[in-house]
Design brief:
By secondary structure, the protein is of the alpha+beta class. Helices cover about 60% and strands about 10% of the residues. Helix 1 (about 10-20) links the parallel strand 1 (about 1-5) and strand 2.
Length: about 200
């Protein structure tokens, strides 16, 4: 059994989409970030940096395995099941490059943009312009790639899962993102129509 500790955010939804795509049985524990649930000792034992998603996988013999961070979760289960990562080394290299863009660039930059443009008590134009520029660079690169291929890698993979929730969040935030990047829109709409993605995006309820 897998217990996913999560919150309804793009980072959390990456893990639930993956588990839904793989058809793995899991239960959900909603971490109440607003009440500081991510800083309680029982959660810190799973995710020492206090971030979601994190999970505990129960193993034979009474053992358990923890995983924290969406990147670790996506890599672990895709490699363990042999799915959502290409077998061909060239295709895998492409998939890993876009996967890491989602984990290291698109995701953190989206979060920082939200922090400085919406949540910060004082708006700092330099920071807002910096993160907006970084996001535009990610969007433009993805749009160009998606003008050449149906998915970010050669076939649907963890690269798409790592990026989709942040594009979906930006799409509903206003600003006409999908209208500005037509290839990104085509990809967004196709991924959003996947039943497993729809189920994963609804976790936790």
């Amino acid at each position: 059994m897998i217990t996913l500790h999560t919150f309804p955010s793009p980072n959390g939804r990456k893990a639930s989409i993956l588990l839904e795509e793989l058809g793995l049985t899991y239960r959900v524990h909603r971490v109440d970030l607003m009440a500081g649930g991510n800083k309680r000792p029982e959660f810190l034992a799973i995710s020492p940096i206090t971030k979601i998603p994190a999970l505990v996988e129960e193993l034979p013999g009474g053992r358990s395995r923890r995983l924290f961070g969406s990147g670790a979760i996506l890599l672990h289960f895709s490699e363990r099941t042999g799915r959502l990562v290409p077998d061909n080394l060239d295709d895998k290299a492409e998939a890993m490059s876009w996967f890491m863009l989602g984990i290291s660039d698109l995701g953190p930059t989206s979060v920082d943009m939200l922090r400085f443009s919406v949540r910060a008590p004082e708006k700092i134009p330099y920071a807002i312009d910096l993160f907006k520029g970084e996001l535009m660079r990610c969007y433009a690169a993805m749009d160009e790639r998606l003008g050449e291929a149906e998915h970010l890698a050669n076939g649907y993979s963890i690269a798409d899962i790592a990026c989709f929730p942040f594009i979906a969040a930006a799409a509903v935030a206003g600003g006409g993102l999908l209208e500005r990047f037509p290839n990104l829109k085509r990809w967004h709409d196709a991924v959003a129509a996947r039943p497993a993605v729809q189920r994963g995006m609804a976790v936790p309820e």
